[in-house]
Every structure is written in C-alpha cells, then in structure tokens.
Automatic annotation (TrEMBL):
GO terms for cellular component: cytosol. GO terms for biological process: proteolysis. Removes the N-terminal methionine from nascent proteins. The N-terminal methionine is often cleaved when the second residue in the primary sequence is small and uncharged (Met-Ala-, Cys, Gly, Pro, Ser, Thr, or Val). Requires deformylation of the N(alpha)-formylated initiator methionine before it can be hydrolyzed. Its cofactor is Co(2+); Zn(2+); Mn(2+); Fe(2+). This is Methionine aminopeptidase. PANTHER family: METHIONINE AMINOPEPTIDASE. A divalent metal cation 2 binds at D108, H171, E204, E235. The gene is map. It holds the Pfam family Peptidase_M24. Binds 2 divalent metal cations per subunit. Has a high-affinity and a low affinity metal-binding site. The true nature of the physiological cofactor is under debate. The enzyme is active with cobalt, zinc, manganese or divalent iron ions. Most likely, methionine aminopeptidases function as mononuclear Fe(2+)-metalloproteases under physiological conditions, and the catalytically relevant metal-binding site has been assigned to the histidine-containing high-affinity site. Its EC number is 3.4.11.18. A divalent metal cation 1 binds at D97, D108, E235. Substrate binds at H79, H178. Residues 13-241 form the Peptidase M24 domain.
Amino acid sequence: MKKILKNKYDIQQMRLSGKITADVLTMIKNHIYPDISTQDINNICHHYITKIKKAVPACLGYKSFPKSICISINDIVCHGIPDKNILLKKGDIVNIDVAVIKNNYYTDASKMFFVGKVNTKKKLLCKITRKSLYQALKCIKPGIKINNIGKKIQKYVESQKLHVVKEYCGHGIGNNFHEPPHILHYYNKYDCLKMQAGMIFTVEPMVNTRSQYVECMKDGWTVKTRDGGCSAQYEHTVLVNQKGCELLTHQKNEKIPKIFINN
Ligand code: MF3
Ligand code: CO
C-alpha cells in the first residue's frame, strides 16, 4: 500500500502544484464564450500549463486519454474529450477538469462555467453541486470518518431533489494521479477509515438533475447521463490539517476560504 500521509516537503510541492491547477481554472474563464471549440480551450490550457507554468497536463496520455483537460457540457457527466467540432453555445453549462503534474506532484480540480445566459434550473444544479462540495469541506478534520464526506454530500443533494453519481469517486493524490483512499460521494457505513492530518485527497461530486444513472460512450471516455438530464461537478484537492483542511486548488475568486477551521 502506498503511503497515505504526506510530509512537509510533499505538502510544499503539492501547494505549488495546486496553485498551478487553480490558476488554469482562473485563467480560462475569459475564454468561455459561444462558438469557441473545446479543442481551442484545450489548447489554451495546454499552452498555459506547459509554457507559462512549466508543468505537465496530467490527463494527456493518462490511460491513453488524448487531450490535456476534460471538458464536459450539459448532459456530459465527466471525461468529455476536447474536439474541434464541439462548439460552446449560449445556455450551456460546462465543466472544465484540470489536473497538472509539477515536480512529480499531481493536483486535480474542476468547476462549472456558464456560456452566456443560462436557465434557472441549470444555474441551480451548479449552485447545489458547489454547495454540496462545501458542505463536505466543513466536516473535514482529523479523527472524523471519511464516510462523513459522502454522507454530507448525499444528504444535501437529495434534500434538493437531485442525484449523486455513484460510479466515480474522489481519491488520494500526490506522486500519483490516483492513490488510496477512495472518497465516496454517498454514504457507505462500512467505510470506517478516519481522516488524519497530512492526508491529501480530492472531493469531486457529480450531481444529475433527473436520475443518478450514467453511461459511457463508444469513445471509451465520454460519460453521459442516461436520461439526457444535465450534470454538474466541482472538485478540489484538499489537505487535511490539524484543525480542518486547506484547499490546495483554491482560486482567488472563490467565495469560500482557502483554509477551513472545523471545530
Ligand atoms: N480529473 C479526473 C479524475 O479525477 C480525470 C481523470 S481521467 C483523464 O480522475 F483521463 F482525463 F485524465
Ligand atoms: Co479527480
């Protein structure tokens, strides 16, 4: 089993990596508009990560994924492949999922963007998904069982009559893209591992409007809702510290704090 706790050096490096991932998401906001292709968005991110930040896009070549980031529009749940023939249009909600490697340290984050004016239902889906992630962040501190994360997310999402996707989970992250532990976004009573200061993992709930069910397309990557309903996702890479947690992928323009003190 891989080591689950990070040391001071690891944490320093993860902060550097996380800042790059966060900066990509901040930078790309100005490039989200009608008629831009998802390939162009991919290329802007690729250039920024490699040339400006001297880092490596973690998705590119990961299990043969062909592009540098994932872009998932409306009923695409996750792992949308950037393509020159896929153009953003007014009213779309778009998830951009960025993972980078800097000095051999991985971080991973994603958020939703709106293309022009978006209808109330889609806006609400995004807001609730984002808030479900924040509810989970408020319960992260040493000694608390990891299954509290999923419990909080599921409880909040279902109270809003929306649906948590069960097939994908958060994950430990560090010198590898995916490390133990698994972070479920729904409650599992058998998952009794406790959080410890020095753990770093992602929390990345995917939430659907109509039902939880998803299907993978023939390209082997693109995951869609089965019923054509919309899906949203927000993700952060999170360090558990003595009093709560630190968002390693916190973006300057976010409404929530970078450091959570969870007494
Ligand atoms: N960010 C996703 C994750 O959490 C993406 C992995 S699939 C990839 O694992 F191929 F796009 F990298
Ligand atoms: Co992830």
